[in-house]
Structure prediction request, 352 residues.
Amino acid sequence: MKQKNILITGGAGFIGSHVVRLMVHKYPETNFVNLDLLTYAGNLENVADVAGNPNYTFVRGDIRNAEFLKDLFEKYNFDGVIHLAAESHVDRSIENPLAFVETNVLGTVNLLNTARNWWQDDFDDKLFYHISTDEVYGSLGKTGLFTEQTPYDPHSPYSASKAASDHFVRSYHNTYGMPTVISNCSNNYGPNQFPEKLIPLFINNIKNNKPLPVYGDGQYTRDWLYVLDHARAIDTIFNHGKSGETYNVGGFNEYTNIDLIHLLCDLMDDKLNRPAGTSRQLITFVKDRPGHDKRYAIDATKIKRELGWQPSVNFEEGLSKTIDWYLQNENWLKNVTSGDYQKYYDRMYAGR
Ligand code: NAD
Ligand code: TYD
Prediction:
């Protein structure tokens, strides 16, 4: 039997690196090609431990470049695609929406086109798996959960670009019969997340005794999932999901930002041997994010019922492990916060 070749895009990023590690170890008979542009968010240190594995190859390249993708498919004759490469930060999308259209929409359509052309509409045993976000569903009121039937209502340039890419993936299934699956996941946290997102940014600031910029009143709610649980869900969906289907993935774990930040501060005080209450003093309420979505929460019963996946890591335990990782990986944090990071930080937070 031909050895399978699977393309993972964005595998040097936060979630992608955990997916790469899980898959490369779990399926030694399958070849995995990690395609990543290594933007500010991509970091080969995230996958350094798998670099020497015989079933793993890293390729630096751009999903916006159709010619490059064609050559890559020709070289590796992929049987499947797990597509995570994206611009992923809402605040950056507010600053520069076009970059999100180019990578998330155009890049995804390039990838769909290339796969379709290479497979020549013979889709036997092929699969295009697109990783998306719960933010495509918009914002919830005090009650209710996002299900796979919730109508799309994206509010930020980031979520609008992800929604558009989801629609394109569905259109390839509907129009050309391409086997596709999509999953929409809630907020991830864990090791290797770039410190522009709430949890790693606040861990870094607490460590350095810097203010913690809480947007608005802090009463925004997110549903948090440990990244390794998401990676397990992606493995489950890629191998057992039904073509044409969508799966919502979430932690059944809602926190308001301010409650989460209090918990984070208290855990950090404990780990840094600071008197209780020290880190909470760093909390600073700042100007809100424009168009800030009030509440996200996922109903993940379909994936549990149909594929047997459910979250396994309790939030306090996951948060504690995450803090330990950042405290133990000072060099990683130092490397990603050198260079342009300070400029980004000043630009994003100086005006608040
Ligand atoms: P990330 O920003 O950490 O990583 C994105 C990766 O994509 C980086 O390694 C980057 O170098 C790469 N990339 C960007 N542009 C590229 C291009 N043009 N060509 C090739 N590679 C490119 O993102 P993440 O948080 O790991 O998210 C991964 C995926 O999961 C995204 O599609 C995102 O929308 C989705 N998602 C993320 C979350 C979350 O909480 N982080 C939740 C749900 C869904
Ligand atoms: P974030 O990690 O950017 O994820 P998303 O916007 O995709 O949900 O933000 C999580 C929540 O934290 C969101 O409600 C915005 C808020 N937030 C702050 O209050 N301060 C910050 O500095 C950041 C980055 C986020």
User: Anything to note?
Assistant: The domain at 5-189+224-252+292-313+339-348 is CATH 3.40.50.720 (Rossmann fold). The longest strand covers residues 127-133. DSSP finds twelve helices and twelve strands in the chain. The chain has a mean pLDDT of 97.
